[in-house]
Request: fold
Amino acid sequence: MSYVTIEQVTKGYDNQLVLNNISLTLKKGEFATLLGQSGCGKSTLLRSIAGLEDVDVGRILIDGKDITDLSPRQREVGMVFQSYALFPNMNVFDNIAYGLKMKKVKNLKSKVNNMIDMVDLIGKEESYPHQLSGGQQQRVALARALVMEPKVLLLDEPLSALDAKIRKSLQKELKRIQKELDITTIFVTHDQEEAMTMSDRIFVMNKGQVVQSGSPSEIYTSPVNTFVAKFIGNYNVCNMEVFRKLVRTTELKGNEVAIRPEVLQLVSVGEDSLDLQGNWEIKGFVKDVSMAGNVLRYEVETEECAFHVDYLHHRGEMFEQGARVQILVPKKECIML
Amino acid sequence: MRKIKKQKIYLLALLLPFIMFVIGFEIGPLVAMIKNSFYADDGIQVTIDQYLTIFKSEFYLQAIKNSLVISVFSAITSVIVAVIAAYSFTKFSQKIQNRLLMVTNMTSNFEGIPLSFSYIILLGNNGLFTLLFAKIGWDLFADFNLYSWTGLILVYIYFQIPLAVMLIYPSYQGIRQQWKEASSLLGGSTFSFWLRIGVPVLLPSIVGTFSILFANAMGAYATAYALVGSNYNILSLQIASLVASDVALKPQLGSALGVLLATTMIGAMWFNERMMRRVRRDLR
Reply:
């Protein structure tokens, strides 16, 4: 039974479709991510669910109730903004208590304190937003949304403004809190790594449409088109005609072939014991080597096009720039698009 | 090290004209005014008689009271109008906002004798509208007298509003759309947003504007002089008549009144600041 349902939602600005007939469903307690480049419509979709944008066509349902025409305050959704949007004139306690005050909830104090405990901000109750770090401000924003016990939690790139280390730790914490409260969550990001680590399900969006949805590993290992392949995993995408020429075969179909950089292997030219059964081989030379910490990335130039090959950074396994190599391409890892 | 010192000296030297200007035209007269206020009418004997004269004289106390009332009243009215007007400005397109600001800027400089004269032409005893309304038979304006308390207030408010709008408008840029969105998602109405977030955030600028308007009205002289002359008893007119009149020249008494005028303004600003810090605890 789906908990959040989005049915054929369409929205346009100035003759341009921002959301183009989007339909998706989420289960209760699911952590879903809308992933895409800026301008793909992911934030607009999130804001439409929150009621901050109207949709032109389509319906949005939460827990079986049609909320399409309800105002934001009637929707029972919580939202965390990229820029935190904390009220600058209120301290941490009052920021978190704001929604409860609006709702005239009793035993407000204990609820707020529990929430402060949950987001690990004990001792900061009296602090004002400008006295807090970015990470702390975002925790307050999260607590402010969660204390209302919303049916759905919407997160609009909540971690993008934070530096890498705090971001990683907040990712974990966010996930922990989400599991603990079992709250259905929709997370918007343009960062594919973040999407992979956090989500139960990813919806990859492009030009106002959902182009692929699935678990992180499904999306990563079986992209459905060139866009997803390039966006999600730095795939080597090669024109099929070119690729056929390179591997001297006619048996492949499709327009393009996508191969993950980490499944490719490099061997020196003339080295024996090649498993030609499961692999194709392509001759080339190392044009460039770059090091990204634990990963070595080779750019190997072949007759027709260049390939990226990723290696874990073991000691003593380096090919020099200019070295003549053969790329082993595992046949079963080639994805035809 | 030496180079830095030299540079500092040059920079200070560049400030010199400004410092001289401030001393010559601001601090100097202020000190002279305070000093003068402690002399007797003969200008030789040191005394506090001038202050005693003021506090014993119902006439001068009334002048202070009238000035305070007109200043507070016109400042409050103008701030309220400006808070609403400046907000409505922000709802227009950028182009129209610029136009509106231009008009406001122009009108905020329209004060003093030309302003009074315009009012006299339009709403005076033989003013254009006064006669027109009388011809049409609208008796709504029959009781209106420009050369009275109401008239004076009207003119003061007229020149205060554009200034207030100019001062408050920029602070609306500091109100972020996402605060409104967050508030509405948390169940807040538009009213509760403005009550609990919008107005408190605007408060420093509202309070600052109020202080400026108050001082502006307390010190306004030409407008009042042209409109009511000596018919109405306000502080700035009394000071003027004591230092520049050809009937009763008493510069020492005028100075004492001037000191009181300045004290009232400083007192008002201090009070405003205190009140604001109570509401905006985050600014402490």
Summary: The longest helix of chain B spans residues 2-37. Chain B has a mean pLDDT of 88. Chain B has two domains: 1-37, 49-283. The CA atoms of residues 53 and 253 of chain B lie 8 Å apart.
